[in-house]
Design a protein that fits this description.
The structure is a single chain. This protein is an alpha/beta fold and 406 residues long. The protein folds into two domains: 146 residues, Aspartate Aminotransferase, domain 1; 247 residues, 3-Layer(aba) Sandwich (Aspartate Aminotransferase, domain 2), CATH 3.40.640.10. Helices cover 36% and strands 17% of the residues. The protein is built from 14 helices and 15 strands. The strands form three sheets. A seven-stranded mixed β-sheet has the order 4-10-9-8-7-5-6, with helices on both faces. Strands 1-2-3-13 form a four-stranded mixed β-sheet. Helix 9 links the parallel strand 7 and strand 8. Helix 3 runs antiparallel to helix 11, helix 4 runs parallel beside helix 11 and helix 12 runs parallel beside helix 14. It starts with 10 loop residues before the first helix and ends with a helix. 46% of the residues are buried. It binds pyridoxal-5'-phosphate. Pyridoxal-5'-phosphate (PLP) binds next to helix 5.
């Protein structure tokens, strides 16, 4: 057998290996990261960058947070996987911690965001049949234009992005897709067979799009009036990103199911899940649903510490305070190429004018200035740094953003 050893050195060599031997389902910036700490990352050539994407908000607590890494190391040396066939001493404490923090009675852990969304859809359907009394096979779930909930076949079944669906049919039935922000459309569509309304409080992948004020409150009222569940996807918007623990808090509503992921793993391990009260969560009986790695002690230990540092180190308040400061400074740049700057907390979309030549060029130029960010759709640059960023680091970034945008 030939050796499996490969020892690339330069950026070009790493990229060549990935391009030749990997699948081409992403189009990353050509920077090969080898080390990271807080808001900073280093590439294999020794260049230093400010991370303005934070792994799509999975690194809210900053890269390699020392307390999270310590918890991981400690746990890695004790026990990492038991499966749910046995119990472990990290799952119960995590469930207690996250439910107390969020104000729900139960938590069900999964691994990826898409899996947690699937779990919420299954919970809603089962609740519809067993509790609401929807006739078998008739459950309907309402979702919205421009949504992003993940990449499984059922989830892309109700995506309105053609690329996400092209070539992946046949699709899962039982979803109605309505205009985002249009509560009147929901009021016309919702009915006796509706089991859930699935919504992102702010659409991230769509370009940091907030619905009109009052939209979530109207959805809450319509869900109550028609006995349907309000299910919010907080995978990207949650855990401090918008300056509150969850983005739905800005509207003062309480959903029935909250989907979490991304930053729950503190940027170290995949862990996701759903939060709900007994009426919904109790529809799951032993054997109904599961995951081999779901609730593993390594991920639970990381998540426990990830939640602790988020709260104890004031990251949520920092997101609110510095988010406001950052958006003001961005607006003050007054770039001729910018159509709109919008956002909440440290989650800001800069939408460029149609004739600006697309956001990708700007992300490439920002990279040359030492700032890593990623376009979303063709015309929006997303700024979403780790929530541990300081005012000085934002000033440093704004100087460079101003250079590139003017
Ligand atoms: C990232 C994301 C998902 C999917 O999470 P994965 O871990 O990539 O499966 C679902 N919903 C929202 C809002 C997201 O941002």
């Amino acid at each position: 057998m030939s050796t499996v050893r490969v020892e690339p050195r330069s950026t070009a060599e790493f990229i060549e290996l990935e391009e030749r031997h990997g699948a081409h389902n992403y189009h990353p910036l050509d920077v090969v990261i080898t080390k990271a700490r807080g808001v900073w990352v280093w590439d294999v050539e020794g260049n230093k960058y400010l991370d303005f994407l934070a792994a799509y908000s999975a690194v809210n607590q900053g890269h390699c947070h020392p307390r999270i890494v310590a918890a991981l190391k400690e746990q890695a040396e004790r026990v990492t996987l038991t499966s749910r066939a046995f119990r472990n001493d990290q799952l119960g404490p995590l469930c207690a911690q996250i439910t107390r923090l969020a104000g729900f009675s139960r938590f069900l852990p999964m691994n990826s965001g898409a899996e947690a969304v699937e779990t919420a859809l299954k919970a809603a359907r089962k609740w519809g049949y067993k509790v609401k009394g929807v006739p078998d096979g008739q459950a309907e779930i309402i979702a919205f234009d421009g949504n992003f909930h993940g990449r499984t076949i059922s989830i892309v079944s109700f995506s309105t992005d053609e690329q996400y669906r092209d070539g992946f049919g046949p699709f899962t039935p039982g979803f109605q897709v309505l205009p985002y922000g249009d509560a009147d459309a929901v009021s016309r569509a919702i009915g006796p067979n509706t089991v859930a309304v699935l919504v992102e409080p702010i659409q991230g992948e769509s370009g940091i799009i907030a619905p009109p004020a009052g939209f979530l409150r109207r959805l809450r009222e319509l869900a109550d009036a028609n006995r349907a569940l309000l299910v919010v996807d907080e995978i990207q918007s949650g855990l401090g990103r918008t300056g509150t623990l969850f983005a739905y808090e800005h509207e003062g509503v309480r959903p029935d199911v909250v989907i979490v992921g991304k930053a729950l793993g503190g940027g170290c391990v995949p862990i996701s899940g759903i939060l709900a009260d007994d009426e919904v969560m109790d529809v799951f009986k032993p054997g109904d649903h599961g995951s081999t790695f779901g609730g593993n002690p390594l991920a639970c230990a990381a998540a426990r510490t990830a939640l602790q540092v988020l709260v104890e180190e004031g990251m949520i308040e920092n997101s609110a305070r510095l988010g406001e400061y950052f958006i003001e400074r961005l607006r003050a740049i007054g770039s001729p190429h910018v159509r709109e700057i919008r956002g909440k907390g440290l989650w800001i979309g800069v939408q460029l004018k149609a004739d600006a030549g697309g956001a990708r060029r700007y992300c490439e130029a920002l990279k040359e200035q030492g700032l890593l960010c990623k376009e979303t759709h063709v015309d929006t640059i997303r700024f979403a740094p780790p929530l541990v960023i300081t005012r000085e680091e934002i000033d440093w970034a704004v100087e460079r953003i101003a250079k590139v945008l003017s």
